[in-house]
Amino acid sequence: MCPRCGGLLDIERTNALDPGTLRDLWRSRLTSLDSRDRSGVWRFREFLPFDNDDPIVTLSEGNTPLYDAPRSADYCGLRQLKLKHQGNNPTGSFKDTGMTVAVTQARKLGARLVACASTGNTAASLAAYAARANLVCAIIVPSGQVSHAKLAQALDYGAKVLEIDGNFDSCMSFIRELSEDSSVYLVNSINPFRIEGQKTVAFELAEQLEWRVPDHLVVPGGNLGNSSAFGKGFRELLQSGLIDRQPKITVVQAVGAAPFARLYLEHDDESTLINEQDPKTLASAIKIGAPVSWRKALRAVHETGGSVLTVTEQEIADAKAMIGRDGIGCEPASATTVAGMRKLVADGVIKADETVVGVLTGHLLKDTDYVMGYHGNTLVGPDGEQIRGRFANTPIQGQDLHDLLDE
Ligand code: F0G
Predict the structure, then answer these.
(1) Taking a C-beta distance cutoff of 8 angstroms, is the pair 128, 155 a contact?
(2) How far apart are CA 269 and CA 263, in angstroms?
(3) Is 14's C-beta closer than 6 angstroms to any atom of ligand 1?
(4) Is 325 helix (H, G, I), strand (E, B) or coil?
(5) How many angstroms is it from 362 CA to the middle of ligand 1?
(6) Sheet holding 216-220: strands in order across?
């Protein structure tokens, strides 16, 4: 039994069912009208530490599309590329897949208040799920550093938002102090229930690929909960005989906020991560200098034979525009994936004919100021450098249709 919740542990449950039965069961739930089955997270509940009759807090998260992205593939030098769009979740980011589980647990424990520090998406997601669960929600964000779209979500869902001077890492220290009060339930990605929910994305992805995993899975890295969750998800799938190998998990960071990449690339000693004191990137979601889940993420990278790398602001911006040309669209942090793949193909780490999936973590509409800046050629990087919109699509000033067609 699980010591935290009294539910069955993963391994006890999965031993009870063979891979074929599990696959059929999960697929059959796609046509069910039960809210537990309709959630792309709870559909895989045999691997979640809860009992079947525990009430859940859900907004029908998960079940996100896996798109073919031919223009982005061409841009990277790949024959084929698929993008798993986690921005198609209820609050527009991958955070919802973890939050449904963490808030379900908070309610089960009788928490009075749920709280997190955030660069914006965790805040938006927690605020929504807390509202569904009728829990008081407190959010701490770095003042002036969160996109308006994300802040607007948190406010509309009724969260109490505290803006503090400092960066995400200062917010994180602050929230850890607050959570020493036992009535406060902290749901940053150090919370194991968040990771449990997010790991189900590996299940959904494997199912979408008919249980044949890709050669490479590429994810953005900030606080490193997502890469840790993918590591756990694929590990459990392998242990249960649902897949026969794991994809190589590669984590991409923005060059100005890359403590994990530096640990991986530069240090012989991987036992201590040296924090980045002043992380800088326009991809505000991953502007993090002291990632809390780096040990688990490092395990995922090593265990699967993946890697860690950095990309520049210019590379992120161009990759983001290219993803848009595939008709998909994402927020800047998500575009580190395509920017990173392009480098890995150029360096021969990824071969042109290998199968590759990139994880888009947030929706295009999460940060429209960035998009308008790029296409208007007014985007300025964190060190004052001009970002040249290689694929800028500047609005045309004119009087009639010919002005459009002449372009
Ligand atoms: N992409 C987006 C859109 C994010 O919002 C985040 C993290 C990441 C990538 C990085 O994921 O932290 O699991 O490595 N956002 C957090 C937040 C920090 O507060 O919304 P990670």
Answers:
(1) no
(2) 8
(3) no
(4) helix
(5) 9
(6) 66-68, 82-85, 356-360, 216-220, 248-254, 308-311
- Is 220 touching ligand 1 by the criterion CB < 6 Å? yes
> Over the stretch 318-355, which tens digit does the pLDDT of each residue have?
999 999 999 999 999 999 999 999 999 999 999 999 99
% pLDDT > 70, the chain? 96
Q: Return the residue whose CA atom lies nearest to atom 12 of ligand 1.
A: 223
Q: Which two tokens stand for residue 383?
A: 């060190």
Instruction: Name the residue at shortest CA distance from atom 7 of ligand 1.
Output: 285
Q: Rounded to an integer, what is the distance from CA 177 to the centroid of its chain?
A: 25
For ligand 1, say whether the CB of 39 is within 6 Å of any of its atoms: no
Please tell me the distance from the alpha carbon of residue 355 to that of residue 345, in angstroms, as a whole number: 12
Among residues 157, 56, 106, the alpha carbon closest in space to that of 115 is found at 106
Q: What spacing in Å lies between the alpha carbon of 400 and ligand 1's midpoint?
A: 43
Nearest CA to ligand 1 atom 4: 285
SS3 350: coil
Which tens digit of pLDDT belongs to each residue from 241-253?
999 999 999 999 9
Quick check: CB of 331 below 6 Å from ligand 1?
Answer: yes
Residue type for 275, please?
N
Q: Is 226 in the pocket of ligand 1 (CB under 6 A)?
A: yes
Compute, in angstroms, the gap from residue 201 CA to the centroid of ligand 1. Answer: 15
At 271-322, the pLDDT tens digits run: 889 999 999 999 999 999 999 999 999 999 999 999 999 999 999 999 999 9
pTM: 0.95
Instruction: Evaluate the CA torsion angle 265, 270, 274, 275 in order and state its sign.
Output: positive
212 burial (CB, 10 Å; 0-12 / 13-18 / 19+) is: exposed
Tens of pLDDT, residues 121-157: 999 999 999 999 999 999 999 999 999 999 999 999 9
Specify the pLDDT at position 183: 84
Say how many Å lie between the CA of residue 398 and the centre of ligand 1. 40
Atom number of ligand 1 nearest to Cα 116: 19
